[in-house]
Design a protein that fits this description.
Chain A is an alpha+beta fold. Chain A is built from four helices and three strands. Chain B is mainly α. Classes of the chains: A alpha+beta, B mainly alpha.
Chain lengths: ~110, ~190
């Protein structure tokens, strides 16, 4: 039997990364660098700096987040992102779906235990 | 602030690759990545950060693939899924295999549906034929059909339509499966 927990984890993380980024940006608008620091205490989300920027780029193009350049850091401009109205609606729908999923999954796992 | 030449080398190569792949606003992306790398250099983590990003060409593809795969997966229409598989098949084996089988199923669906037209204009040459030797054939026979027995008769059109639809749906399912596998793979880089 082939058992590849990393492959299964990666499937689990794909949708979670988007939810985590939107939730973090909804709490506080941040630059990519700041976001990397904010997800560092949560290694199980599995979101590295390298993978963050393509995701931010896609979310911005989809209109879920909006980026704005600032030059608060001397000599190093940063692009700060915030969640748009469309992004907030999307985040609310994701949260609801996640809650229902967790409820059902927990019920199954607890029944098994 | 660090001025490590590796940063500019990476950013130059990234911009070239993003432009080549047709990713919009490459300058904007590169400016952000440059800031990220400068911050990493200031924190003494440039080596690790560059290693994490991989080559500039691979990293540029992550931007392109993130957009393409997600877009095709959400829209799910044959136009988007096939276009995405064609685009990605040059460097992703999963896309090439998915494209191959999707193509076979779509072409089979098309050819079955084309025989419906033959059934309308030349019903004696089109149908489900069997020969005395036990062979069978579904479609249109170019030669003399009297050497075979035809079984479906007037039911050929609904049967062929159902088969065509079945092959079409199977092709779409394979394309979605290939995209799903690539989504999984791209998330593995997360």
């Amino acid at each position: 039997m082939i058992m590849n927990i990393d492959s299964w984890k990666s499937q689990l993380r794909k949708g979670a990364a988007e939810l985590a980024v939107l939730a973090l940006l909804d709490q506080t608008p941040s630059s990519g660098i700041a976001l990397v620091k904010r997800v560092e205490p949560h290694p199980h989300i599995g979101l590295s700096g390298g993978a963050l920027y393509p995701l931010l780029n896609r979310l911005e193009r989809e209109g879920k987040i909006a980026g704005r350049w600032s030059s608060e850091t001397v000599g190093r401009p940063e692009k700060s992102y915030e969640v748009t109205e469309d992004g907030k609606a999307w985040l609310a729908a994701m949260r609801e779906a996640r809650t229902l999923f967790d409820q059902d999954m927990n019920a199954i796992l607890e029944a098994q235990a | 602030m660090s001025t490590d030449p590796r940063i500019e080398n990476f950013c130059d190569a990234l911009e070239q690759n993003l432009t080549r792949l047709g990713v919009g606003q490459p300058g904007d992306i590169v400016s952000e990545i440059r800031s990220h790398l400068l911050a990493a250099a200031d924190a003494g983590a440039l080596e690790t950060t560059l290693k994490e990003m991989g080559s500039a060409a691979d990293y540029a593809r992550q931007f392109r693939d993130e957009l393409r795969i997600e877009d095709a997966y959400i829209r799910s229409g044959p136009k988007h899924t096939v276009a995405t598989l064609i685009l990605l098949s040059a460097h992703r084996l999963g896309a090439a295999i998915g494209l191959f089988f999707t193509g076979i199923f779509y072409l089979t669906a098309l050819s079955v549906l084309v025989t419906i037209g033959f059934e309308i204009f030349d019903p004696s040459s089109t149908g489900l034929f069997t020969s005395d030797e036990g062979g069978f054939f579904l479609g249109t026979i170019a030669g003399d059909p009297s050497a075979y027995s035809e079984h479906l008769g007037g039911f050929y059109i609904p049967v062929a339509a159902a088969m065509g639809m079945g092959f079409y749906l199977a092709g779409g399912a394979i394309a979605r499966l290939a995209l799903r596998m690539m989504r999984k793979k791209s998330s593995r880089q997360t």
